[in-house]
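User: Before I run my own analysis I want an independent prediction to cross-check against. Here's the chain; please return only the structure tokens and, at the end, one sentence I can use as a sanity check.
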Amino acid sequence: MDHNEYKAYLKQQYSHKIRPLQSVNDVISAFQKKLDLVETELSESEIIFLKMTILNYTHAHKNDPIISNLDNLNFISYEVVKNEKSDYYYNHMKINSGNERILVIIESQLNEITSNCEELKVDMLIERGIDTSHVKQDTPNFFAYLMLFDN
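Assistant: Structure tokens:
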């Protein structure tokens, strides 16, 4: 299947699942209905994940005036409580030890959300949705969003 065929396939398969862009706070609220999320402080080893996240956001938002002053950013981290509701994600990550946990990190000014669990991150990005301008203009962001469903 060539690139254009794949794009047509994605549109045909998943266009009905497209969600309008929501704030990361709305996504957190939606997932708090499915999972037990508690605001948390990061451990020393988890700070590395936050630092990588900041670098990714800095790169992705390099033309954004907010990013020019990193002091304005406010990261909030959540722990996904390990219980029956979260078994799917914990099993996916194969976390067995008691000190490892699934994290969700948001930055509301940039409207960014991430997780150290790829499956949860994808589910949250799907829930977050996409700006309708990307859909109307068939941008690469639109197709990246559709690919989340396909993966």
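Sanity check: The chain has two domains: 1-21+129-151, 24-116.
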